[in-house]
Specification:
Immunoglobulin-like; four-stranded mixed sheet; 9 helices
Length: 723
C-alpha cells in the first residue's frame, strides 16, 4: 500500500472472516509500524459466518518511513508492507537557526541556507512563514522563491526595538514548505540575542588603600599608582578619549599616568592614577575624582567621586644572630637590634618568645617591651653549650617578636665544637697570601675531621701550633716588608729572624702531622712560605754586604753588620760562613771596645787635670773658677793645653767606635771647660790691673805722708808752727 506524507489520514481495508455462530466487534491491535507512521483500526461489527472489511486509518508524518505494518484482529494476525511517498520538505542547514547577536538600534541581516531535508525530493521555491514572533524584534526572510533543487539561500533581517533589553534572547518560530506542497510544512525555531553598543559602566578604584610603607624620613612625599577600573558594559569596543583625575585634599595630588586606547565589549581596562601624598599626612579617608570620556562631542562618559584610605604601615624588623662555633663550656653572647623601620607608629606590648629550637643552652637575657616609631632596641642572648650538645650540629633557635601592630622573627644559630677555631681563622684571614690560604684550608679540613670525630687531641694541638706559627710568620713577613719598603733594613732584621723561627716551627709541626691529607696541606703552606723567606734573606744579605764593601762604617756598625750577616748565614744554613762572620764580628767588637776604653781613659785624664787646676790654681766665686794669682799662669797654660788634647783624643776615639752620642756628650763637656778656662784667663788680667792700682795708691799715700812729715819737721825747727 502507498501513503502520502502529507499529514492526512488514509484508509486501508483488511478482510476478516468470522466463522463462528455469533457476531462480534473487531478488536484491532497494531504490534508494529514504521517510524513516523500511525496506524489504528476502526470500530467494525463482524457478522457470524461472514467476511468483513475492517478499515485501518493510516497517518504518515513528514518524517515517516516505509516499512511493514503488523497486528491482529481478535487474535488473528495480519501484515502488509506500507510504502510512504514523501513530498519535498524544506529546512535550515542548522536547526534551530541561531542568527547570533543583533545590535540594538541597527538592523542586522545575513544569509542562511535552506535545504531539502526529507532526502528524496527536490525543492521548487520555499515559503517561510512566521508562526510566532518576538515582541522586541522583527524577523523577515526573503528570496525563498529562488531556492530550487537540494538547497539554496535566503536572506534574513532582524530589527530589534530600541528599548529591547540588553542580552535578551529573541525567539521566533517559522514554518517552511515547498511552494508546491503548502501542507507539507515544518516548524523551526529561530533565535538571536540583543546586544548594545559600547558604553562606560560604573568606574571603580582597583585599590582604595594607599599604604605608607616607606620610611617617614626617606623624603617629603610618597607616590603610588592606583588603578581606575573602566568597564565597557556594552558589547562592542569603545574608544577611550581622555582620563582626568584630581583630589581636593591638601597634601594630595592625582594625575592620570596611563590610559587604555580601546576597551572590548564586556571587558574592563585599567587607567593608572598617579597619587602623590605628603608623608606627614595622618591616616584617614581622602577624596578622589575621576572622569572618562570618548572622543567627540556626542560620545559617552563616566565619572567617579570616591575616596581612598591612607594607612600607616608598621614594620618591625629584627637582626639574626649567627654566633658560629662555640666551644663546649665557654660562655658566649650576642645582642641583636629590633627596629621599627618606617617611623609612623610605635610598637607596644612587645613580647619575645621562643617558637622553635631547643630549650637548652640559649637564654634570652633581655628584650624590649616597646619600640618607638623609627627607633630601635636591643635583645640580648647568652649561650653556653654543655656536654649534652652534639658536636658539629648546627642548632637554630627561632624567637617571635610580637608587637601590637607587627611582629618579627629572630633566628639565632650556633654550633658546639670542642674548641673555638674562629680566632685562628680570623688571624689567618687577615693575610692575603698563599701561605695563609693553605693554612686556612688545613684548619677547615681539620675542623671537618674534628666534627666527625676523626681528629685526635695530638692532631688538633699540632695543627693549631702550625697555625699559630703561620700567623707569627705572616706577621713577621708583613712587618719586614713594610720596613724594607721604607728602606729600614736594620729594623727589618729582627722581623726576618722571627719569620725564620716561625718557618722552622712550621716544619717541625708539619712533620708531626700523621694524616696524609693534612700533612700535604701543611707542606704546601711551608713551601709557599719558603719562597717569601728566601726573598727577604737575600735582600737583607745584599744590603749588609753592600754596607761592608762601602768602608764608611764605624767600628760598632762594622761589628753589628758582621754579626747580622752571621745570623743571615745561619738562616741560610751556612754554618761555616756564619762562624767566620761571627769571628770577624768579635774582632770588630774588640776594636770597638778598645776605642771606647781609650776614649773614656782620655776623658778621665782631662777631668783629673781639671780637678787639679781647681784645687791648686783657681778661686771659685759663685761657682765660677777664677785665676787670681799671676804666679800660676804658666801652670794654667799647661793645664789648658792638656785638657784640650785629652778631650779631643776622647772625641776622636768615640767617633771612631761609632759612639756618636758619647762623643757629643764629651764635646759638650769640653766646650764647657773651654768656656770656663777662658773666663779664668780673663780674670787673671783683671787681677793684675787691680794689683797695679793698689800699688799706685800705696805709693801716692806714702809720698803724701812724707811731704807732711818733712814740712812739719821744718816748722818745728824754725818755730813757725807757733805763729
Amino acid at each position: 500500500m502507498n501513503v502520502q506524507t502529507d499529514g492526512q489520514t488514509d484508509s486501508h481495508d483488511i478482510q476478516v472472516t468470522n466463522s463462528g455462530q455469533n457476531g462480534t466487534n473487531a478488536d484491532v491491535t497494531i504490534t508494529s509500524e514504521p517510524s513516523g507512521v500511525s496506524v489504528s483500526g476502526a470500530d467494525t461489527y463482524l457478522a457470524p459466518g461472514t467476511t468483513t472489511d475492517v478499515p485501518l486509518d493510516i497517518t504518515a508524518g513528514f518524517d515517516a518511513e516505509s516499512g511493514t505494518v503488523s497486528g491482529n484482529v481478535n487474535g488473528e494476525p495480519f501484515e502488509f508492507y506500507l510504502t510512504v511517498n514523501t513530498p519535498p520538505l524544506a529546512g535550515f542547514e542548522d536547526e534551530p537557526l541561531d542568527l547570533g547577536d543583533v545590535l540594538v538600534g541597527q538592523t542586522a541581516s545575513g544569509e542562511v541556507t535552506v535545504e531539502e531535508v526529507s532526502g528524496g525530493g527536490s525543492l521548487n521555491g520555499v515559503e517561510i512563514t512566521e508562526v510566532s514572533g518576538d515582541q522586541d524584534a522583527d524577523l523577515d526572510f526573503s528570496g525563498g522563491a529562488s531556492v530550487s533543487g537540494s538547497s539554496g539561500t535566503v536572506d534574513w533581517t532582524v530589527t530589534p526595538d530600541s528599548d529591547a533589553p540588553q542580552h535578551e534572547d529573541l525567539e521566533w518560530t517559522v514554518e517552511l514548505s515547498d511552494s508546491r506542497y503548502p501542507d507539507a510544512t515544518r516548524e523551526v525555531d529561530v533565535e538571536a540575542r540583543a546586544i548594545y553598543p559600547g558604553y562606560f559602566g560604573e568606574l571603580e578604584l582597583g585599590d582604595d588603600e594607599f599604604t605608607f610603607d616607606e620610611p617617614r624620613d626617606g623624603g617629603d612625599t610618597l607616590t603610588r599608582t592606583i588603578d581606575l577600573e573602566i568597564p565597557n558594559d556594552g558589547d562592542t569596543p569603545i574608544e577611550v578619549g581622555s582620563v582626568s583625575a584630581s583630589s581636593p585634599n591638601a597634601g594630595v595630588s592625582v594625575t592620570a599616568s596611563s590610559t587604555p586606547n580601546e576597551i572590548d565589549g564586556q571587558s574592563t581596562e585599567d587607567a593608572s592614577l598617579r597619587v602623590t601624598a605628603d608623608r606627614d599626612l595622618p591616616e584617614g579617608s581622602y577624596d578622589i575624582s575621576a572622569t572618562v570620556d570618548t572622543p567627540g562631542f556626542d560620545g559617552d562618559d563616566a565619572s567617579l567621586d570616591g575616596s581612598f584610605d591612607i594607612v600607616h604601615e608598621t614594620r618591625l624588623v629584627a637582626d639574626n644572630a649567627d654566633i658560629g662555633d662555640v666551644a663546649i663550656g665557654e660562655a658566649n653572647g650576642r645582642t641583636v637590634t629590633v627596629s621599627e623601620e618606617l617611623g609612623y607608629n610605635d610598637v607596644n606590648d612587645v613580647d619575645t618568645t621562643l617558637t622553635d629550637g631547643p630549650e637548652e643552652w640559649l637564654t634570652l637575657q633581655s628584650a624590649p617591651s616597646s619600640v618607638s616609631a623609627g627607633g630601635s632596641a636591643d635583645a640580648t642572648f647568652s649561650l653556653e653549650f654543655d656536654t649534652s650538645a652534639e658536636l658539629g650540629e648546627s642548632y637554630e633557635w627561632v624567637y617571635n617578636v610580637d608587637g601590637d601592630s607587627d611582629d618579627a622573627t629572630i633566628e639565632v644559630t650556633a654550633s658546639p665544637v670542642p674548641l673555638d677555631l674562629e680566632p685562628i681563622r680570623n688571624d689567618l684571614s687577615g693575610y692575603d697570601t698563599a701561605v695563609a690560604d693553605s693554612t686556612l684550608e688545613l684548619v677547615d679540613r681539620m675542623d671537618e675531621r674534628l666534627r666527625s670525630g676523626a681528629s685526635a687531641n695530638q692532631e688538633i694541638s699540632t695543627v693549631l701550633t702550625f697555625g699559630e706559627a703561620v700567623t707569627l710568620y705572616s706577621e713577621a713577613v708583613a712587618e719586614a716588608d713594610g720596613h724594607l719598603e721604607n728602606g729600614e733594613n736594620a729594623q727589618a732584621q729582627s722581623a726576618i729572624i722571627r719569620a725564620a723561627a716561625a718557618y722552622n716551627t712550621m716544619g717541625l709541626q708539619a712533620d708531626r702531622i700523621e694524616n696524609e691529607e693534612l700533612r700535604g696541606l701543611a707542606n704546601t703552606a711551608q713551601s709557599d712560605a719558603e719562597g717569601d723567606l728566601d726573598r727577604l734573606i737575600q735582600e737583607q744579605q745584599a744590603y749588609y754586604e753592600d754596607r761592608l764593601e762601602s768602608g764608611e762604617m764605624s767600628l760598632i756598625e762594622e761589628a753589628t753588620t758582621q754579626r747580622q750577616l752571621a745570623r743571615i748565614a745561619l738562616l741560610q744554613g751556612d754554618e761555616e760562613r756564619a762562624n767566620q762572620l761571627e769571628s770577624d764580628a768579635e774582632e770588630a767588637f774588640s776594636s770597638y771596645s778598645d776605642s771606647v776604653s781609650a776614649g773614656e781613659q782620655a776623658v778621665q785624664e782631662a777631668e783629673s787635670t781639671w780637678s787639679r787646676m781647681e784645687d791648686e790654681q783657681f778661686v771659685v766665686v759663685l761657682g765660677q773658677p777664677l785665676l787670681l794669682n799671676p804666679a800660676n799662669y804658666d801652670a794654667f797654660v799647661a793645664g789648658t793645653a792638656s785638657i784640650d788634647a785629652t778631650y779631643q783624643e776622647a772625641i776622636d776615639a768615640f767617633e771612631s767606635a761609632g759612639e756618636t752620642t758619647r762623643a757629643e756628650e764629651v764635646r759638650a763637656e769640653h766646650e764647657s771647660r773651654t768656656t770656663a778656662l777662658g773666663i779664668a784667663r780673663y780674670s787673671l788680667f783683671g787681677a793684675i790691673g787691680v794689683y797695679a792700682l793698689v800699688a799706685v795708691g800705696l805709693t801716692l799715700r806714702t809720698a803724701r805722708r812724707m811731704f807732711w812729715y818733712v814740712r812739719d819737721t821744718r816748722e818745728s825747727v824754725s818755730g813757725d808752727f807757733l805763729v
